[in-house]
Specification:
Elements (H helix, E strand, L loop, with lengths): L17 H11 L3 E2 L9 E2 L1 H20 L3 E2 L5 E3 H20 L21 E5 L2 E9 L4 H11 L8 E10 L14 E11 L2 H22 L3 E5 L11 E8 L5 E11 L1 H6 L2 E3 L5 E3 L1 E8 L1 H10 L16 E5 L6 H16 L4 E3 L6 H11 L3 E5 L1 H6 L1 E6 L4 E5 L3 H27 E3 L12 E5 L4 H11 L2 E6 L7 E2 L6 E2 L2 E5 L3
Parallel strand pairs: 3-7, 15-16, 15-17, 20-21
Antiparallel strand pairs: 1-2, 4-6, 5-6, 7-8, 8-14, 9-10, 9-22, 10-11, 11-14, 12-13, 17-18, 18-19, 21-25, 22-25, 23-24
Helix pairs in contact: 2-5, 3-4
């Protein structure tokens, strides 16, 4: 059971008022400082940055496991590459809307794309640049300019790369820490393959990675093949990964794009096949952002503060010496426990500040440290530490088996967060079989839907909700479409989105 707090503490608004609670807690818990004089560009505080780097570590581990190589591309991109991307994206979007092959179209109108969202660099010192540059909003054009130099034959494929960098987009909407910012801590994987089938296998691997990371973070999510109008214009299809937030809204934290060979043709990314013919590569991208941390904050926090999953907590264990002035053995024991736990690979912090223990308890409760171990003179005498879980529950654990005991406690905390996450998912998602059941009341609606784009538009307007797209797992048995009445196994979700 999760800890129950009747009243908010230390100036934290109640979580029931999520729109007030969230921006307050990210600062009170020392994750960010929002006072930097550029809107949407928060300063990461040490504790917040440690949390983000722990999430990055989970990502790095998955990339290593699946054979991706880390790269790092420059921040600046010349204007001509943006124009190239915009023309390509506009062409592909127009072809998709018209239902024709892109080769059948000529683009005469102004291309669309990131141009209105990028930050420009037009001077170097006092000199005006011959070619203006911009700060990367994503890295497709930068990376795909180099990929043709790296790939010559089928032996060079698959090419599986990734980087964790900052991207920049000038969004005029209201900013919100981690959720909607203008400088984004961003993960992006870019791959090239011999054919469509191999690229599709990469998408399947991406979804496996998503499942692993979401499990580590204890986040409830929905994976959906986005409807055509919400597909990245340069993609054949897009899969969106949406976390279910406490207020029933969904937050897209990741996406996978299958490009087929559309981008490869534009960037001349080709290879010599085994039969000596020249073929274009098929490509995919997979991206995630600091929204993952925002989802963790929102999903697991409570009225008392954050609750960090053990997998990404900056400190998994905080050690509190109690009444150390009464016995030198207290600090000696605390330091021994610290060394033992650290040698076992655990993230440990000793709070030896000269303040009352109660103050320390409140501070670490706000920061969401999964496990607190109190050690005082009586604990030393009895050979145990007093363990307090952030998710609720207190008990003594023996010092003689401290590593095993701490691992057991952390596993129980992780289990509690996953159970709470699953329970939340089940409570928020409701099945709807008729249009009059679709109400904007903080729920996500699961529906059978196989209608047209115009039917989808009617659905969204009548419900004031957004169609997330086709769920990757269909219904096991056909059901009547909520609009047409036709029998279908296509499962879709309607939700309020951030």
């Amino acid at each position: 059971m999760m800890a129950n707090h009747d009243k908010a503490k230390r100036g934290i608004p109640p979580k029931s008022d999520f729109n007030a609670w969230y921006p307050a807690i990210v600062e009170i818990a020392d994750l960010v400082d929002k006072r930097y004089p550029i809107k949407g560009m928060d300063v990461w505080r040490p504790y917040g940055w440690k949390a983000m780097k722990r999430i990055d570590a989970l990502t790095h581990a998955e990339m290593e496991r699946t054979g991706h190589d880390e790269v790092h591309f420059p921040l600046l991109i010349p204007e001509d590459l943006l124009e190239k991307e915009n023309r390509l994206v506009a062409l592909l979007k127009a072809a998709r809307d018209a239902g024709v092959d892109p080769s059948e179209l000529r683009m005469d109108e102004e291309p669309a794309g990131f141009k209105k969202e990028v930050y420009w660099v037009k001077h170097a010192g006092e000199n005006e640049l011959d070619v203006p540059m911009f700060l990367r909003p994503t890295s497709e054009t930068a990376m795909y300019t180099l990929f043709p130099l790296w790939v010559r034959s089928h032996a060079d494929l698959p090419l599986k790369t990734y980087q964790i960098v900052n991207t920049f987009r000038y969004e005029t909407k209201q900013t919100r820490s981690f959720i909607r910012v203008r400088e984004i801590h961003f993960f992006e994987a870019h791959t090239a393959h011999v054919d469509e089938e191999d690229a599709t296998r990469q998408i399947e691997e991406d979804l496996e990675i998503v499942s692993n990371i979401m499990g580590d973070l204890g986040l409830p999510y929905i994976a959906s093949k986005r409807p055509v109008w919400d597909t990245f214009p340069g993609a054949w299809y897009t899969i969106g990964i949406d976390v279910i937030m406490p207020n029933g809204r969904t937050l897209q934290v990741a996406s996978c794009h299958h490009y087929r060979d559309q981008w490869a043709q534009a960037f001349d990314l080709s290879y010599e096949a085994e039969d000596r013919t020249t073929k274009f590569c098929h490509q995919t991208t997979y991206g995630m952002s600091e929204r993952l941390l925002g989802a963790v904050v929102g999903m697991h926090g409570d009225d008392a503060g954050l609750i960090m999953p053990p997998s990404m907590a900056p400190f998994q264990v905080v050690l509190i010496p109690v009444a150390a002035h009464k016995s030198e053995a207290v600090m000696e024991t605390v330091r021994d426990v610290e060394a033992t736990l650290k040698s076992a690979g655990l993230k440990v912090h000793v709070d030896d500040r000269d303040i009352r223990p109660g103050q320390k308890y409140y501070d670490w409760e706000i920061k969401g440290v999964p496990l607190r171990l109190d050690i005082g003179p009586r604990d030393v005498e009895k050979g145990h530490a007093f363990a307090a879980r952030r998710t609720g529950g207190k008990q003594p654990i023996p010092l003689a088996t401290i590593v095993e005991s701490v691992h057991s406690e952390l596993n129980e905390i992780q289990k509690s967060l996953v159970e709470s996450s699953n329970q939340h998912r089940n409570q928020i998602i409701r099945s709807a079989t008729s249009l009059d059941q679709l109400t904007d009341d903080g729920h996500i609606f699961e529906i059978a839907f196989c209608g047209t784009d115009s039917d989808a538009e009617v659905l969204e307007k009548n419900s004031n909700l957004a169609l997330l797209g086709e769920a990757l797992e269909p219904f096991s048995e056909p059901r009547p479409c909520i609009v047409t009445g036709e029998m279908t196994t296509i499962r879709q979700h309607l939700a309020r989105m951030y």
